[in-house]
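Aim 2 progress update. The chain analyzed this quarter is reproduced below.
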Amino acid sequence: MDISEVARRAGVPASTLRFYEQKGLIVSSGRRGLRRQFAPGVLEQLALIALGRSVGFSLDEIALMFGADGQPRIDRQLLANKAEELDQAIRRLTAMRDGLRHAAACPAPSHMECPSFRRLLGLAAGRPGSGRGRKTPARKGRPAPKRP
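Predicted structure tokens:
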């Protein structure tokens, strides 16, 4: 198959195919005139690359998933580690979603006075569990805000 057919069937631009070839993720089987030619198996490789990208693997990590012959050689521990990363991201995003829903209906006079909203701020700042079970310390010279 020539590069334009692979691009059409895989749903990616030809420039992406050239980039993947440059990175060593796929290999052309030759040229017909100026057009790169690919074996039909490249579509499966591209599907694996798309899957890897969609779950957050870097191109370098994906490159490690192919043997020298272009066949998949996927490290199961790498998959387990990525699944755990996704679980953590799901928990973080679920907490943020729940915090936003609470903030939308919170009766506190100000969102900054709402402990749930303050936890959401901590999550957004990369501090998982921020504020849970702890009172926010009073600022110097000011009393701590009242909790609803």
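The chain has six helices and two strands. The CA atoms of residues 16 and 25 lie 11 Å apart. These observations will guide the mutagenesis experiments scheduled for the next reporting period.
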